[in-house]
Structure formats: structure tokens, C-alpha cells
Known about the structure:
Blueprint: H1 13-24, H2 28-55, H3 62-94, H4 99-128, H5 130-166, H6 169-179
Amino acid sequence: MSDRSTTEGTPPAATQEADDQTYTDRPALLVQLLRDHVEARRKLSALEAEVDRIAQYHKPDDAALGAAMAYFASYMALQHHPTEDLVYGALTRRAPSRAAEIDKIATEHGEVHALFTQCEEAARRLLADPEGMRSHFCRVLRSFIAFERHHIRREEGAFFLYAREHLTPGDWESIAADAGQFAKLPR
């Protein structure tokens, strides 16, 4: 019998309270970006599971594949990354000493989008020819998954920390107002 106090996937109440407390001293927009990363990790895990299934010669699950990929094609590309780009711009102005490092992380968005475009094409080709395109699909998707995880770690390990340290409450308000145009998009 397990001594776990919660069901699988549900954090203990103390952990949830600690997470909530950690977020209370952060700008709301930064909290949203961090939560987006949590959801992106979930979608990456779902993609990875589907890639593993396909690699084992199972028939592609169009719905599972489509749902996981839709998050990156719509929400991340059209709302999350443009919002981060606004933060990058403000941070570059506020912390010019960090500009080179910030620029390296910011340019990864282009690489993420290019890799994801390859994923979309690989998925189309896989669905048209599952046996012939299986290996190519798995290779392309695994590359995207690894790069996206790397990118998220870099953002959380440097960029978000710098933003929290250098941006003023006024900067965050201005960024949030500018990002409001993206907020109408579905997740």
C-alpha cells in the first residue's frame, strides 16, 4: 500500500500552497508565462508518448497528435512567444549588459518555429504514408521536443530571472497592455 497522500498527478496541498506563495511575489504576466511553460511541458510529454507509440509501429493517433501539436501552432506561436518578445524588448532596454545573452535566447523562437514547421510537414507526410515516413517523423519530432525543452530551461534559468530582476512594475504593466492584443486567442 502506498503512503502517498494524493492521487497520481495531483500535488499535495502543501506543495500547491508553496507554489501559490512563490507566485504571489511575481508579476502576473510572468506567472502566466511560467504556467504556459508548464502546459508546454505537458504537451511535449504527450507528443513524446505519441512519437514512442509510432516508433513501435502503432498506428498514429490523429486526435492525440493534433491536440498536442495545436497548442504549439496556435497558442505558443501566436500568443506566448509574441508576449515573450515584448518582455525581451523591454528587458534589452532595461538591462543592456544582458542584451547579448537575451538576444541568443530570443532568437531561439525563430528556431522553435522552424522546427515546428518541419514537425507539421512530417506529421502530414506520416498520415499520408505511415510506414514510409515513420522514421523521419520520429526523428523530426524528437528534435523539436528536445529543442523546445532546452529553450524552456534557458528562458526559466536566465531570461525570466533577469526580467524579474530588472523590469519595473510600470514595464510589466506596459507589456501586459501591449500583450492584451494576443489575449483574445484560444489556448
